[in-house]
UniProtKB/TrEMBL annotation:
<dbReference type="GO" id="GO:0052906">
    <property type="term" value="F:tRNA (guanine(37)-N1)-methyltransferase activity"/>
</dbReference>
<comment type="similarity">
    <text>Belongs to the RNA methyltransferase TrmD family.</text>
</comment>
<feature type="domain" description="tRNA methyltransferase TRMD/TRM10-type">
    <location>
        <begin position="1"/>
        <end position="232"/>
    </location>
</feature>
<keyword id="KW-0489">Methyltransferase</keyword>
<dbReference type="InterPro" id="IPR029026">
    <property type="entry name" value="tRNA_m1G_MTases_N"/>
</dbReference>
<dbReference type="GO" id="GO:0005829">
    <property type="term" value="C:cytosol"/>
</dbReference>
<dbReference type="InterPro" id="IPR023148">
    <property type="entry name" value="tRNA_m1G_MeTrfase_C_sf"/>
</dbReference>
<keyword id="KW-0949">S-adenosyl-L-methionine</keyword>
<dbReference type="InterPro" id="IPR002649">
    <property type="entry name" value="tRNA_m1G_MeTrfase_TrmD"/>
</dbReference>
<keyword id="KW-0819">tRNA processing</keyword>
<feature type="binding site">
    <location>
        <begin position="136"/>
        <end position="141"/>
    </location>
    <ligand>
        <name>S-adenosyl-L-methionine</name>
    </ligand>
</feature>
<keyword id="KW-0963">Cytoplasm</keyword>
<dbReference type="Pfam" id="PF01746">
    <property type="entry name" value="tRNA_m1G_MT"/>
</dbReference>
<comment type="subunit">
    <text>Homodimer.</text>
</comment>
<protein>
    <recommendedName>
        <fullName>tRNA (guanine-N(1)-)-methyltransferase</fullName>
        <ecNumber>2.1.1.228</ecNumber>
    </recommendedName>
</protein>
<dbReference type="InterPro" id="IPR016009">
    <property type="entry name" value="tRNA_MeTrfase_TRMD/TRM10"/>
</dbReference>
<keyword id="KW-0808">Transferase</keyword>
Length: 253
């Protein structure tokens, strides 16, 4: 997989190429990252990438031309490899990025992310060059870089060979194999900590009972903190009769 990112701060992306599971995967060649700075595609002495907004108002707006020239360079580089990747802009306007989309993008050959800055980007560039917009939620960041890091991390960790065990990704919260529910609680050594013991079932070695306990805990956590995910799972027929019976017991307790 190849990821291209347009950013004024390419150094920020060393966190995914040099550290943690994404860094190890990058060193193994399981994925590639290329960052592109729009300042490198300007021709004035100040390498200007922004200007005052028409109509007045605070802040500055990113110019369309440096971004378009950067994107053209990326697409030319991709075409030499026979690739044509979709273009995503990190923006509060976008649809909220979810695990299901991470799984879809993980199966692609790659994608292009654009990190905005200042008050925003000239709308004409968005209208003519961007395929879709992505958001992390209803809050505002200083730029798209942190959101892009989150998107890249969520996708790369799903690639085969990135995690030590494939089952780790399958048990993640929101994963389709978990019916889109929250993950169950986790415990490790010592067996008793602060006078709180590990649940007995996890020490039993009885895999079927452990699986049932984890499923029930997942359901209990989800109904408590994200009931909307339960309703979605019901609507998509992702819950078994056993799941529904357990939820009924919870509601009555």
């Amino acid at each position: 997989m190849r990821v291209d990112i347009i950013t004024l701060f390419p150094e920020m992306f060393k966190t995914v190429t040099d550290l943690g599971v994404t860094g190890r995967a990058h060193q193994k060649g399981l994925w590639q990252l290329k960052t592109w700075n729009p300042r490198d595609f300007t021709h004035d002495v100040h390498h200007t990438v922004d200007d005052r907004p028409y109509g007045g108002g605070p802040g500055m707006v990113m110019l369309a031309e440096p971004l378009q020239k950067t994107l053209e360079a990326i697409k030319h580089d991709l075409s030499a490899q026979g690739l044509n990747h979709p273009v995503y802009l990190l923006s509060p306007v976008g649809a909220v990025f979810k695990q299901s989309q991470a799984q879809v993008m993980m199966n692609s050959s790659g994608f292009i992310l654009i990190c905005g800055r200042y008050e925003g980007i000239d709308q004409r560039f968005i209208d003519t060059c961007v395929d879709a917009q992505l958001s992390l939620g209803d809050f505002v960041l200083s730029g798209g870089e942190i959101a892009a890091l989150a998107v890249v991390d969520s996708i790369v960790r799903l690639l085969p060979g990135v995690l030590n065990t494939h089952e780790s990704a399958l048990q993640d919260s929101f994963h389709e194999s978990q019916s889109g529910l929250l993950d169950s609680p986790h415990y490790t050594r010592p067996e008793i900590y602060q006078q709180i013991p590990v649940p007995e079932v996890l020490l039993s070695g009885h895999h079927k009972k452990i699986a049932q306990w984890r499923r029930e805990q997942s359901l209990a956590l989800t109904i408590k903190y994200r009931p909307d995910l339960i309703e979605k799972a019901k609507a998509n027929h992702q819950l078994t009769k056993q799941d529904l019976d357990f939820l009924t017991v919870l509601e009555k307790s």
